């Protein structure tokens, strides 16, 4: 497969998934922009979650993440507490309202993924997950001199 075909396939699947999720979020009247959803997901899933860890995980500027976190704090979807391991940072966790919002978002994700994989069998889905993981690991690893 030529590199341009792989490039286009990756762009198409990424764009199609993001677009379908954004539509599902809008249609379900979830009152959060997609970036806020991604940050709330990170807060919900990362152990010992800090703004710095979210910025690294989402590959975003820490200042942008901090702005989103402040909005999530103001809306009552997350809470923060002192980090006993590092006094310069605070640990973040979803509030009860944030956990309820995450349940809604998970349902939307499951519906979108079911739609996306409706004509695929379990082996095909597992193969895609393995290949996507390998590709991501290759990009995350230091570049070698080939």
Automatic annotation (TrEMBL):
Highest taxon listed in the record's lineage: Bacteria
Name of the protein: MarR family transcriptional regulator
Keywords noted in UniProt: DNA-binding, Transcription, Transcription regulation
HTH marR-type domain sequence ranges: 3-137
Entry-linked InterPro entries: HTH_MarR-typ, MarR/SlyA-like, Tscrpt_reg_MarR-type_CS, WH-like_DNA-bd_sf, WH_DNA-bd_sf
Naturally occurring in which organism (per UniProt): Halopseudomonas sabulinigri
One Pfam assignment: MarR_2
């Amino acid at each position: 497969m030529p590199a341009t075909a792989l490039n286009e396939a990756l762009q198409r699947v990424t764009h199609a998934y993001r677009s379908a999720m954004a539509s599902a979020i809008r249609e379900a009247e979830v009152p959060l922009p997609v970036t806020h959803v991604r940050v709330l997901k990170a807060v919900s899933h990362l152990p010992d979650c800090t703004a710095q860890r979210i910025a690294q995980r989402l590959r975003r500027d820490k200042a942008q993440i901090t702005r989103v976190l402040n909005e999530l704090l103001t809306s009552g979807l997350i809470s923060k507490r002192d980090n006993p391991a590092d006094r310069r940072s605070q640990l973040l966790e979803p509030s009860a309202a944030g956990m309820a919002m995450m349940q809604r978002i998970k349902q939307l994700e499951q519906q979108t993924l079911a739609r996306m994989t409706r004509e695929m069998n379990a082996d095909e889905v597992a193969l895609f997950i393995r290949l996507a993981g390998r590709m991501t690991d290759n990009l995350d690893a230091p570049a070698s001199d080939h």
